[in-house]
Design goal:
- α1 runs parallel beside α3 and α2 packs across α4 (121-144).
- The chain has 5 helices and 7 strands.
- The protein is globular and about 55 Å long.
- It is of the alpha+beta class.
- Keywords: Lyase, Metal-binding.
- This is Class II aldolase/adducin family protein.
Length: 175
C-alpha cells in the first residue's frame, strides 16, 4: 500500500533508468515516468504522479478528452486529453502519454488511469487530486445532462481575470 511505503522501499533511478539507490527493482512503469520527465520542461516539471483513481480511470474508458468544464481545470492547461491504450510499461504508452501531456500538467490514459505533473511532488499530487476532482465533477454533471464546457473566449476571460486579480496569490488587505 502506498500509504505504508517506507523510504527503504523507494528505488531511485537516473533519467536513463539506471538504479542509483534502493534494493528493489523499479516499477514496471519506469519507462512511462522517465519518458514524461525527459520530455517535460525541466524548469517546470520535477515530479510525476501516476494513479488509477476511479473517476479518471472511468472516464478514460469512454472519452477521448474531458473538456474544460470548470475554470480550475485551466491550472492543468485545459482539456484533459486521453492517450490511446498501450500496455503498461511499454515505450509506446510513454510516447502516447507524452503527446497527451503536451502543454498540459495532466492527462488520462485509455483504460488505465491518469498522470499528473508538478514542479515538485507536492504540486504533482495537487494536480493529481485536481484531475480526479475534475473527472468526478464531469461524471456527476454528465449523469444529469450534457456538461456546459467553457469555450475559448470564456477560458481567456478566466485567465485575464485571474491575472488582473492575482487569483491564488496571497494579497495584503487594503485599509
Amino acid at each position: 500500500m502506498l500509504g505504508e511505503l517506507t523510504p527503504e522501499q523507494v528505488t531511485i533511478v537516473t533519467l536513463d533508468g539506471e538504479v542509483v539507490e534502493g534494493d528493489w527493482a523499479p516499477t514496471s512503469e519506469t519507462a512511462l515516468h522517465l519518458g514524461v520527465l525527459r520530455h517535460a520542461p525541466a524548469d517546470q516539471v520535477g515530479a510525476v504522479v501516476h494513479t488509477h483513481a476511479p473517476m479518471a480511470t472511468s472516464l478514460s474508458l469512454v472519452l477521448d478528452e474531458v473538456p474544460v468544464v470548470h475554470y480550475q481545470q485551466l491550472l492543468l492547461g485545459g482539456a484533459l486529453r486521453v492517450a490511446p491504450f498501450h500496455p503498461f510499461g511499454s515505450v509506446e504508452l510513454a510516447h502516447a502519454v507524452g503527446a497527451a501531456l503536451d502543454g498540459r500538467l495532466a492527462a488520462l490514459m485509455a483504460n488505465h488511469g491518469a498522470v499528473a505533473l508538478g514542479r515538485d511532488l507536492v504540486h504533482a499530487v495537487e494536480n493529481a487530486l485536481l484531475t480526479e476532482w475534475i473527472c468526478d465533477l464531469y461524471w456527476h454533471a454528465r449523469a444529469i445532462g450534457e456538461p456546459r464546457a467553457l469555450d475559448a473566449a470564456a477560458q481567456q476571460a478566466v485567465v485575464e481575470a485571474a491575472t488582473r486579480r492575482g487569483y491564488g496569490q496571497p494579497q495584503r488587505a487594503e485599509r
